[in-house]
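Purpose: get a first structural picture of the assembly so the mutagenesis plan has something to point at.
Setup: two entries, given in the order below. No constraints added.
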Amino acid sequence: MKKNMRKLSILVILTFCMSMVFTGLIANAKTSKTSAKKLIFIITPSHDNPFFKAEAQGAEQMAKKLGYVTKSVSHDDDATKQDQLFDTAIASKAAAIICDNAGADATTAAVKKAKAAGIPTFLIDREINTAGIAITQIVSNNFQGAQLGGQEFVKLMGEKGNYVELVGKESDTNAGIRSKGYHSMIDQYPAMKMVAQQSADWDQTEAFTKMESILQANKNIKGVICGNDTMAMGAMAALKAAGKKNVIVVGFDGSNDVRDSIKAGDIKATVLQPAFGIAQLAVQEANKFIKTKKTGVKEKQLKNCFLITKSNANKLETFALSK
Amino acid sequence: MKKTFKLIPIILIACFCLVLSSCKLFTVVKIDKGNGNDNGTSLFSQDNSFDADKYVSSIWSSKVIPTMEKKSVDFTELLKALNTNVDEAGKKYGFRSSDDGSPWSFIVKGKAKITKVDQESLNGMLEVNVDPKDKTTKVIVQVGPVINGTSIRDSLDFIDFNNFTNQMDFASVSSAMNKYINKNVTDKLDYKKLNGKYIEFIGAFTLDTSKEITITPVMIKEAGGDK
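Result (structure tokens, whole complex):
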């Protein structure tokens, strides 16, 4: 009896061991199969904003086309969260990081960290103030875009009149850049009078509420210039609700919503940032770098924005202008 | 029998190790505080260290004017080339900072008759007749006091975005150039008196999709005599 028990227990233990070994081998095989495709990590602000969603989609599509797997995450404009996401990318052994960053100074450190871990970063939309760390920076020329928008606004206003400015989220560098761009144009015309300037934090509802209050305090408003399209939509809605007609509203981004508003004759103009194209270009450059250790282009590439008015609104779709 | 029993713990441990090697029990994520700001985000570091006005006056006589005088193309000749094939004309006579289909900038010199003076707007404009045979292209020379655009900067190959800290410094170069031109170039003439007369000019323009060319001049003067 004792001998049989011994034999049985050995058999049980051995079977147990074999099954563990099998599990181990299968698990190993599985991980090595999925790691055959390289990973591209895509980090942007929240996809709630269609602009950043378009960036992520543009990057994902190009990456998949070129044979990569992707992971798209959002830093929610929080530099600490962005830092953690860079850490995750490093731990995941990403082949490249595509990033629309959460703040120039904080991002420099994150990109340096990735570089030290052997992971190249390709920045899109917003730049950092240091060269030689990211591989490329495909910068959306927000200042030039704002000058285009500001110039058009002045033209539509006949170079004179009372206007309102709705500024973006103050912690976002682009809010300041666009405002400066607008004023670099508008302030050259002394008959243009800014009667109110407030931040609506890029938010449509907040822009509506702020515009409502501004209209109550200012009876004679001829135009509203907005730091982005969602705020322009909110401002336009408030103007309509107050029965104000023929007020000149200009936005920035080139969203489908504002395109439709322009076609309907409400909002007069916006400025397109070619978000989709920039994201795709970044992935192409990443791919070239991964394969050849070179991109063949300069680090900083400035991509200009385009003015969108009724004349070309029908060529605009998801942040890309067709020919 | 006893010997085999002793082996079993070893076998067990060996198997455990093999299984564990393929398992990810946890991922180590380092938290690196870094030396950034408390709230994490920061505006562009506007350290005000780049003085665009100083930069422009320092390069104007030494680099801008000599380059433009040397590289300028006869405008009538360029118009003909543009009306034939834009891309060919761009490659032969123009400049652009990247090959991605962004617009061409051209440096031109010409002699033309002023057909209209529009100083209603602060963006004063002269409509000029460069090639009387070309009926479709509208050519404008902007004369201020407010001068807009980035054509001069964009036509010069020695001014590259990569040499500037950020897009705002880069943009401030063209703004400073426009200011400089208004003060030192275009503010010198009485255009209403020149209506119908000939002017000579050297300037730059950036081609867009419209049939309108707006030239920003770096030299403009009344031409000697009628043609």
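Chain A has a mean pLDDT of 93.
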